[in-house]
Specification:
Blueprint: E1 3-7, E2 13-17, H1 22-32, E3 37-42, H2 48-60, E4 63-67, E5 70-75, E6 82-83, H3 85-90, H4 97-105, E7 107-111, H5 124-132, E8 136-140, E9 143-147, E10 156-158, H6 164-175, E11 180-184, H7 190-201, E12 205-207, E13 213-217, E14 226-228, H8 233-245, E15 249-253, H9 261-269, E16 273-276, E17 280-284, E18 294-295, H10 307-314, E19 320-324, H11 333-340, E20 344-348, E21 351-355, E22 364-366, H12 370-380, E23 386-390, H13 393-396, H14 402-408, E24 412-416
Parallel strand pairs: 2-15, 3-14, 6-7, 10-11, 18-19, 22-23
Antiparallel strand pairs: 1-23, 1-24, 3-5, 4-5, 7-9, 8-9, 11-13, 12-13, 15-17, 16-17, 19-21, 20-21
Helix pairs in contact: 1-2, 1-7, 4-6, 5-6, 6-7, 8-10, 8-12, 10-12, 11-12
The structure holds uridine-diphosphate-N-acetylglucosamine.
The site of uridine-diphosphate-N-acetylglucosamine has 18 residues, from helix 1, helix 5 and helix 6.
């Protein structure tokens, strides 16, 4: 358990570089399982979720060696095709081994992920899609027993919703299925395009990744490959909001501005000065932001994982903002915590009504999940006095060296581990 103590009131200034995207790298670890031999991933952040995915694939038989921001993954010929409940519980993305193991081993045993802090998150689209490719499922004692008795066969799979995870599971299954697989209404996230690129280096034949229709020609065998992940747009976006909320001047380097187009547009509407170069973004915060409305949507819409951070900014805007959360039924636990800091945020169904206040005042708050935790840190940066963020380990799941990098930008942030025995 860690705490972050932030003393607000300092404008953040300077530059920060981002590493590879968590939501891409987790999938690259799974992709590696599909080809025996040594893979190499560069630009990998040392964050808890990456280490956890390392444990998941280690359970299956791979060996991961972390050296700085490089990871070498050795994958044996024979795998243990299972992801048990303790691993799936700790990280929902473990469900992605399903498609990869079905492709590689023709079978998989994967614990069914439960609900989480965002409400129930079903995997019906993953299962329907894999079934269309020839997989069969039994649910035994909370564990999915998956088999592809006749081998996976290419098929047309229309998704009800452009689910990121379902698209990825189908990519894994499709690249080694016999014949052609066509995923329509596929997720278009940059991380999907990046995964397809890595799989392509391994010998997969994929067309249209990054668009709504992905066509895959199955191949018999893949070979190991090296890859440098796409930059983390969520990490980049969070540091930009840190500059905005403190009325500071922050430049994020090594990012892809195009991947944050909608988020940058909204930051501009709040009154931020936004300047972009080929691989950098500079945000200069206004003396006081203006209210803006936005709705979270699949890419290229406003990313749901930037929703809480943006609400932190709008909490101190002049005027009332309305945010509509369209991706998750219950991504609102951060609201109560933000209100403890003096924000005036209320909920009406899927709408978040943010009445801007003149200022926030520091107090203890709980980082309920990665992005909620990040949002509370951002709020703490401008709150009067000290804000103590408990359960800060949630933040470490997605941000490497968050507090140090904020300190480098001028923030007053201290990390503490509570004394043993304290609650
Ligand atoms: C990924 C990201 C997560 C991000 C989300 C949306 C990773 C590790 N996580 O999650 O950070 O917030 O994309 O951009 O990459 N759904 C169903 N049935 C399904 C699949 C999904 O109902 O079979 C629902 C989910 O409950 C959720 C919505 O669809 O409400 C979006 O889910 P999805 O796009 O699949 O997100 P993840 O891949 O889980």
């Amino acid at each position: 358990m860690h705490e972050l103590v932030i003393t607000g009131g300092r404008p953040l200034r300077g530059e920060v570089a981002v590493l590879g995207a968590k939501n891409a790298i987790l999938k690259h670890f799974v992709a590696a399982l599909m080809a025996p031999g040594r893979h190499r991933l560069d630009n990998v952040p040392d964050i808890v979720d990456v280490r956890l995915m390392g444990e998941v694939i280690a359970h299956i038989g791979a060996k991961c060696r972390f050296v700085g921001s490089t990871v070498e993954i050795d994958v044996p010929e024979d795998l243990l095709p299972e992801a048990p409940i303790d691993l799936v519980r700790r990280m929902r993305a473990s469900i992605l081994v399903l498609g990869a193991l079905l492709a590689r081993c023709g079978e998989a045993r994967v614990a069914l992920p439960g609900g989480d802090d965002f409400g129930s998150r079903p995997i019906d689209m993953h299962l329907d899609g894999l079934q269309a490719l020839g997989a069969e499922f039994d649910l035994v004692h909370g564990e999915l027993i998956a088999r592809a008795p006749g081998g996976l066969r290419g098929a047309e799979v229309p998704l009800d919703f452009p689910s990121v995870g379902a698209t990825e599971n189908l990519l894994f299954a499709g690249v080694m299925a016999a014949g052609t697989t066509v995923i329509s209404n596929a997720a278009r996230e940059p991380e999907i395009q990046d995964l397809a690129e890595f799989l392509g280096k391994m010998g997969a034949v994929i067309r249209g990744a990054g668009t709504s229709t992905i066509e895959i020609e199955g191949v018999g065998r893949l070979s190991p490959a090296s890859h440098r992940a796409v930059p983390d747009r969520l990490e980049a976006g969070t540091y930009l909001v840190a500059g905005a909320i403190t009325g500071g001047d922050v430049t994020v380097r090594d990012c892809v501005p195009e991947h944050l187009r909608m988020e940058l547009r909204k930051l501009g509407e709040t009154g931020c000065e936004v300047t972009v170069g080929k691989d950098w973004i500079r945000v200069q915060g206004p003396p006081r932001p203006r209210a803006v409305d936005f709705a979270t949507l699949p890419y290229p819409g406003f990313h749901t994982d930037m929703h809480p951070q943006m609400v932190a900014l709008l909490a101190v805007a002049s005027g009332t903002s309305v945010i509509t959360e369209n991706i998750y039924a219950a991504r609102f636990r951060y609201v109560g915590e933000l209100n403890r800091l003096g924000a005036d945020v209320s909920l009406e169904g899927q709408h978040v009504i943010v009445r801007g206040v003149d200022g926030l005042s520091g107090c203890p708050v709980d980082a309920c999940d990665i992005r909620a935790g990040a949002a509370l840190v951002l709020a703490g940066l401008i709150a009067e006095g000290a804000t103590t963020i408990t359960a800060a380990q949630h933040i470490d799941r997605g941000y490497s060296g968050f507090d140090q990098r904020l300190r480098d930008l001028g923030a007053d942030v201290v990390r503490r581990s509570p004394a043993p025995g304290s609650t």
